[in-house]
Write a structure and sequence with these properties.
Elements (H helix, E strand, L loop, with lengths): L14 H20 L4 H16 L9 H5 L2 H4 L9 H15 L15 H8 L2 H8 L1 H4 L4 H14 L5 H7 L8 E5 L1 H4 L6 E6 L7 H13 L3 E7 L12 H13 L3 H12 L2 E4 L15 H9 L2 E5 H9 L21 E6 L12 H9 L9 E7 L1
Parallel strand pairs: 1-7, 2-3, 2-5, 3-4, 5-6
Antiparallel strand pairs: 6-7
Length: 377
Amino acid sequence: MPDAPVIHSADPASFPHSVLAERHPALIRKVRDAFPYGPEQHRALDALLKSAVEGVIEPLDGDAWWEAWGVEEYVGRSWFEVPFLWSESYFYRRLLHAVGYFGPGPWQGVDPFRPFKLAELDTPQAAEEIAALDRLDGLPVEEQLQALLHGSLWGNRADLGFRIQAGDEKSATPELVADDSESLWPLLTGGTLVVVADNAGRELIPDLLLADRLLRHDRIERAVLHLKPYPYYVSDATTADVVDAVRHLVAAEAPVGRSLWSAMSDGRLTLRAHPFSCGPLPYADMPDDLRAEFAAADLTIMKGDLNYRRLVGDRLWPPTTPFATPTAYFPGPVAALRTLKSDVIAGLDARTEPALVAAEGQGWRTSGAHALIQVRP
């Protein structure tokens, strides 16, 4: 596979540096205020705050996965000197360790991001989106599916981790910088669809709605939803978040709630939570069992910015690099639905990047105001 520079965060003027130096400290404070943690957790969070900004990477004893993912190689180095994808991922693992998520102890299994996720469901906007389902039913099937595909795509704008840094204001009119949706629908012909989920809350609901409509209209026989095995990147979806979303739909008396409940009960909608989903490595390094799952699917949809970074590699590709080039390793047809919140990008035509740069400088890459649908059959 062609090479490109791996993204690091050492440059103080770079977006990755701002994530480590600004967003992560803000998140530590936000998590600290969200729960009545005890002195032990407060001391650990204070230590993580100091380490993440001023210190070096420390070891994490007893986690075989992280040992395999290279923690020993980076121990003792500045967080800003190692690959951005790795350091950002390790920060979240250290945050869970600090609050006692992995126990033993009373905080074992308590999601430090749960209040933020639940707040996403309990908003007027979320209620309006559910109410809009009645209007959707009156549209032709193709228009329903197209609307839900775009709902799933733009749902990423509710990403809570992004809000911590950028706030709620959007600086530009959202628009697609690449749209391969015409190539997506022919891949859904009654087989298995894998969706690698991104965020919980308001984003997860349109993902579930899309899966439900595809099942209902026999475009797929089975949907497999890959989730995070533990809380990650603030708002990434876990099994508990799926249950919360489906219960929310049932409580709102939306028929799709019972439909999804039934699909989960009879196996038409299956949940997966592979440890590699919380890994700091690109999908090119995925283990064999996960590769086999993707290979067996008629289509895998990668949702969100983080999954895009892991799909194509967190590298500074020339923007006109064909999407098929960095995804050539993937064992089956793959699509990306992503709003842009990081520097990595591939698959743009020659006219798109100059126009974006002329209008917005390099901010178009990270503002969340642009999106893409890319497909490699």
